[in-house]
Amino acid sequence: MKRKMPVLASVVALTMALTACGSSSGTKESASPAASAAATSAASQAKDTITALLPPVSPNYQKNFEQMAKDFNTLYPNLTLKIEPASWEDVKQKLDTQVNAGSPPDIAFGGSDSIPKYIEQGLLMDITDTVKPEMISDYDKAPLDYMKNGKGLYGFPAYMEVHALGGNKAYLEQAGIDWKKVQTNGWTYDEFRQAIKKGVVTENGKTRYGFVFAVKGVAAVDYLGIMAKNAGMPYAFNKDNKYAYTSKNYLGLLKDLRALIDDGSMPKELSSVDAGKRWNMFLTGQTMITGKGLAVFENSAKANNAKLAAKDASAVKDSIPVDYVVLPAPTFQGAKPSYATVVDGYMTFRGKKDPTAEHKANVVKAAYFLASGSVAATTNNDLFAAHITQSAKKAAESMKIDRSPENVAAVDYMLKNATPARSDIPTDLAAKAIKLETEVIVPKFQGLIAGEVTPEAMYEAVKTAAIAAFGADGVVKD
Q: Which of 34, 183, 229, 456 has its CA 20 to 30 A from that of 445?
């Protein structure tokens, strides 16, 4: 198994003198043994800057950057948190560009599923030897595990939420769907298929679909990945680390997803639906159920409802009042529910040179500051996301939040049946799987959605590519 891990300092004391004398480079230099003793107490007070690349995690997140930096400096007067804002569209590209140049930010916000990729590139920083016990004990165990790979810890999670579906309450009830039962018991593919057929309505020459999912571009893999977890394939590798998408369940899943379009329950032009369009279709009454959906969509729908009531011109054009209902994805082929969790967080990076022990400790302080306490409480309340640290839960006690209790129950049900973390998948296998996903699965699935590729043809293409990547003995055969 190929791993590139940061090399720990052999003589930490020798670095402290230079730090105390005003170095803020964050990289290791040598100093005389005599100077090191005097520098030890001053090192923790040396000036230092921690850089962070952060997208708009929640609707109001980036509006708080100035206050966040100020609060961090108040907590640590010798430290400066320098935040570089980025959009969701370009944050990954910016990070990859900086990583490839060997000069990533100290902290970057991103999906925990990208950790193996950055470990392979050698610049992700394991903070296991630096993180304090009280930081670890502040966390719920499940989300923290997502930031691990092997025995290493590569940052702190910001939230653990579930990729769900979202329904229009009025339309669900018109179709005779017991949405409260679905919220707390789930539903099978057959039940879901029949339900969205009932949700198709044509009036005045316009069609309201039963189900719409954003699939344009790379978003296609979200749809497939979320449903695959509920089809007996929670990860791209089974427990024996054999590639799972060569299973017959994968072919069955592809057939099932294509059938929803052929039924007329989803638009034939589904391949052109991006995230913005699917949300617009939901708010303008063009679909009964939408995906993927996070709990924050309830907040977004309420905000648009308020604009409609106030006759605010900034409300979505032609939109209607919507009561947003959180719904679980269906299960396939008798599989147990394994709901797709999204654990994004603050990943910790190093440059080409090893950081000083002091700079590494300061990066940990900054990452933990962003991921816990009032910062996390404010952000997660904005997202309608569950709090995953005790400090955030305490800070949130005084914050008001207007959230449907039924939706809270639905999220709780899905979290109890969430896909568990896998830190045992070797980074080289995970990197190969990401490459296969990018080069084969995404384009083939886009073709499947557009009606240009059959389920059988896509399955064979994935199977051929998987055997080439992992070997005939490295894939599931059933």
A: 183
